[in-house]
Amino acid sequence: MRFVSFKDNEVVGLALEVDRTWRGLKDGDAGYPSDLLSLVRSGDQALAQAAEALKNAPAVNLDRVTLLPPISNPEKIVCVGLNYTDHSAESGFKQPDFPTIFGRFNSSLIAHGAPILRPEVSVQLDYEGELVAIIGKPARDVSESDALDYVAGYSIFNDGSIRDYQFKAPQWTPGKNFDDTGAFGPWFVTADELPPGCEGLRLQTRLNGQVVQDASISDMVFSVAKLISILSGFMTLVPGDVIVTGTPSGVGLARKPQLFMKDGDVCEVEIERIGILSNPIKDRSVKRAAA
Question: Where exactly are the transmembrane stretches of this chain (predicted)?
Fold first, then answer.
């Protein structure tokens, strides 16, 4: 099943892909099943019932509505750095034996099609195409062999990073949380539609049509299952939590000359069998209060 979250005339809605057509309902419509986060929190049966409710709903033209992140307000957005050996090497880091973990906040999230905003304080806006795993049931002290049973589905992320702010201090939080830099979408694909842990699927990032990252999900040092097992060993993961699993080599910071995103660019992240997350790049305009 594939679900997309959207907004039409400021009313949120949910749509299901049916034979290459999206069919959906909005909040307030008879039969509207609820938002995706609520459904994920309610479990697999709730997702199946939502699909049943939506399969004969009116068609939704995604070009005429505003897409939202699949889940706009997760309790946690857990990001993983240095999870591809080549990326660790190009970044000048020794490959860690334990995943490099940092957090993002909901305020940074944007959807497919929305502009990634380059802040006026920096020109070092970098792309990072990544696989997202979305937790489907509470997970604490989960074994690696059981971990994929806790995944509801998958999506795509562009972890837009302000590099000079990322490295102002040992903690990366500032550079990873500028408003409108965390692109997430375009939709949510249930785990049963994809290989376990998305192993073997291709991830490719393109900037203005030029391939800048190209790798297999199987190249991750810490697989989706391993990440869930490690994370659940020190905190409880809850339904709707978003795990952003890391980016492969090819980032703009490591290139010579460096390649950062700028106003007018378009960045696409494609993961085989999931879709394409596409976002234009724009400069953020700041309206300052009069003195």
Answer: none
**Which tens digit of pLDDT belongs to each residue from 192-251?**
999 999 999 999 999 999 999 999 999 999 999 999 999 999 999 999 999 999 999 999
156: left (phi over 0), alpha (psi -120 to 50) or beta: beta
Q: What is the CATH number of domain 77-283?
A: 3.90.850.10
Token output for 270: 């494609």
Q: Peptide bond preceding 257: is omega within 30 degrees of 0, i.e. cis?
A: yes
pLDDT tens digits, 11-49: 999 999 999 999 999 999 999 999 999 999 999 999 999
Domain ranges in the chain?
Answer: 2-67, 77-283
Cβ neighbours of 141 (radius 10 Å): 9
> Distances from the Cα of 3 to the Cαs of 40, 42, 47, 252, 265, in angstroms?
11, 15, 9, 32, 28
Cα separation, 197 vs 260, in Å, equals 30
Between β-strands 11-18 and 2-8, what pairing exists: parallel, antiparallel or unpaired?
Answer: antiparallel
Exposed/middle/buried for residue 185 (C-beta within 10 Å: 0-12, 13-18, 19+): buried
